[in-house]
Amino acid sequence: MKAATLERLLAARAAKRAVVLATKLDDGTQALWPDEALPPALVAAAEEALRDDEAKNQDGWFLAPHNPPLRLIVVGAVHVAQSLVPMALPLGFAVTVVDPRRAFATDARFPGVTLNHEWPDDAMKELAPDARTAVVTLTHDPKLDDPALDVALRSGAFYIGALGSRRTHAKRVARLTELGHGPDAIARIRAPIGLDIEAVTAPEIALSILAEIVAARRGSKLAQRLAA
Amino acid sequence: MRDRVVSEDILSTAAEWRRAGETLALATVVETWGSSPRPAGSMLLVSKSGKLAGSVSGGCIEGAVAQIGQRVMETGAPELHDFGISDERAWEVGLACGGKLKVFVEKLA
Question: According to the model, what pLDDT value does residue B84 have?
Fold first, then answer.
């Protein structure tokens, strides 16, 4: 690899731009797509590599996708979030903590992550969750959780989870129904949140949430929930 | 889908080591068969001074790949190698693998 290619690949990564490093395996020729052109047959494979987030071999070329990091949006700078955030970072998530209550969402409590002090509906509209984004609401306060869930349900987020008991969730379902969400949309919300590992402490709850997020991302059967 | 995050850290390390004046080779898993422990895209970075970063197999073939890396740093010509990880060897290094993989080794010029 040429040093210039490496620097451009790292720059694309820093700019959170999706690129594919294409390598011709017989002579080492390389191209960074889409900045540099590839033959049409390879372009289709490169697009597929990015979409599947999986390396491909095509016509003697190796196509390595470099997607921007997965995102995790945590609504509620609460105690559980303090366990969740530092565990999410090494799993490869770029984390944003949303909480308008500035006393909770502080750099001291959440070092190394982006803090957003907007009201959750504004924050969520700005953050625009996509298919590489997980959204978790933790505040226990409908004034904060509901507007975030309202936006999340209108997005392509691959995971939407809400902290709270079955009873809390039943009330939440009624409120979200009033906001115009149908049963299929509401069924996307994982509540009670996390894999059922009988979690009690904040770190255990964080572990169960992250385990469920990973299971959802990797298509594990553990991520499937039976209809309540 | 399996983990592909690891390669990105290796590239940052490659840039760092290069800025520190190291001569480097980069090995990338380009294809796997069976139960290879690392997915395609996994990388091992080798420096002329003998430093290693990353992994192409979880330990089975790192030594052999590092030697190829040293040669590639000399010749400048990339090489493509097939490795079969036997079950016995896998047992020895404590890995439940027994897979096959193809590794591309190039100089960082």
Answer: 78
In this predicted complex, what is the ipTM? 0.83
Cross-strand partners of B82: B102
Residues of A in contact with B77 (CB under 8 A): 28
For chain A, which domains are there? 3-66 (no CATH), 70-223 (3.40.50.720)
Nearest-by-Cβ selection for A92 from B5, B30, B109: B5
**Residues of B whose CB is below 8 A from A23:** 28, 30, 104, 106
Kindly indicate the confidence band of residue A163, based on its pLDDT and cuts at 50, 70 and 90: very high
A63 alpha carbon, distance to own chain's centre: 24
* pLDDT value of position B8: 53
The yes-or-no verdict on residue A112 having pLDDT over 80 is yes
Contact status of B14 with chain A (Cβ, < 8 Å): yes
Reference B108, options A3, A139, A13; nearest CA is A3
Please, what is the end-to-end C-alpha distance for chain A in angstroms? 53
Q: Across the interface, do B106 and A64 touch by the CB < 8 Å criterion? A: no
Question: Which residues in chain A are contacts of B79 at CB distance < 8 A?
Answer: none
Q: Which chain B residues contact residue A54 at CB under 8 A?
A: 1, 4, 39-40
β-pairing, A133-137 with A70-75?
A: parallel
**How far is the alpha carbon of B6 from chain A, nearest alpha carbon, in Å?**
9
pLDDT above 60: residue A104: yes
For the four alpha carbons of B7, A93, B13 and B67, in that order, the dihedral sign comes to: negative
Q: What average pLDDT does the segment B100-107 reach?
A: 93
Domain boundaries, chain B: 6-108
Instruction: Summarize pLDDT for B1-57 with one digit per residue, the tens.
Output: 333 444 557 999 999 999 999 999 999 999 988 776 788 999 999 999 999 999 888
